[in-house]
Amino acid sequence: MFERKLKALDYIDWDKVNGNDVQHFRKLVTWLEDQKIRHYRIEDRKELRDINSENWPQTFAKYCSDVACPITTCPLDQLEWLLGFAIRLEFEDDHKNYQQATGNKAKNKQEAAVPCVKSSNPLDNLDFESNDFKNGVNVIAKILQVPQHPNHLITLEACSKIVCKRLNPSALENPNSVIVKGKAFPILEADLGFDMGDKVLNTAAKILRLLYIHDIRDLQTKINEAIVSVQNITANPKTDTKLGKVGI
């Protein structure tokens, strides 16, 4: 996924970057700051540019904190966030080339037509982009052992799914009912049935297929529950004998 983002940012060696290579990693971070992000003043980038320094990891950690990167665990995830941040800045600098004026006007008219309604629900007044909210999501994700996504809202969605499926009242009463048993199916090693000409796309297609199968199984379970409910009603009908008539 680095290749596509680097190509979009016009990085010269976009197809040769190895995120696990220390020199590649540090050179790329320095390039992002110098050419795209430009958070520091030029004279303040000296330590970040010294990619052979033993203190560079600490310098990188401080840099991530200074640009408000929400990820603090995996350097590769931090690098991917920086790439996404750089792309966003690139878009904001030249957004007119990416958006049509007519689309913006239509959106503005639609927003103007929507009435302003003030809600008394405190959840509706939360600032979902504030640092406090993001930190709270990261704390919950750490407790639930959920990997942090660059987008904190996606991380929150993952936490919500775990709470709904694994921490609901019935699951807490019977933990064995939600514990996955059996051997995991090697979905990434399975034959896709077609080749998209790109290893990353093939892997993504296999993951999408697995998610689709999961949704189908969930739908089938709900259908079976609905059938059982209907059968319970029709198999034991309640009749009022007072309404019955004999003869004509």
In short:
It holds the Pfam family RLL. Helix content is 56%, strand content 0%. The chain is mainly alpha-helical and 248 residues long.
Q: Please state the overall shape, judged from the principal axes of the Cα atoms.
A: elongated
The sequence of SSEs as H and E is HHHHHHHHHH
Tally of strands: 0
Average pLDDT, rounded to a whole number, is 81
Low-pLDDT windows of residues: none
Gyration radius, to the nearest Å?
27 Å
Largest sheet descriptor: none
Tell me what portion of residues adopts beta-strand conformation. Answer: under 5%
C-alpha end-to-end distance: 80 Å
Give the oligomeric state of the chains in this entry, treating copies of one chain as homo and distinct chains as hetero: single chain
Helix content: 55-70%
Kindly give the count of domains: 3
> Structural class from helices and strands?
mainly alpha
Count of helical regions: 10
Pfam families: RLL
InterPro entries: RTRAF
Protein name: RNA transcription, translation and transport factor protein
Organism: Cephus cinctus (Wheat stem sawfly)
Keywords summarizing the entry:
mainly alpha, 56% helix, 3 domains
Mind explaining what this structure looks like?
The chain has 248 residues and is mainly alpha-helical. It has helices at residues 2-8, 22-37, 46-49, 56-66, 75-93, 101-113, 131-144, 152-166, 169-173, 199-234. It folds into 3 domains: 2-97, no CATH class; 131-181, no CATH class; 182-232. It is built from 10 helices and no strands. Helix 2 (22-37) runs parallel beside helix 5 (75-93) and helix 7 crosses helix 8. The radius of gyration is 27 Å and the shape is elongated. The termini are far apart. The model has no long low-confidence stretch (mean pLDDT 81). Pfam families: RLL (PF10036). InterPro entries: RTRAF. This is RNA transcription, translation and transport factor protein.
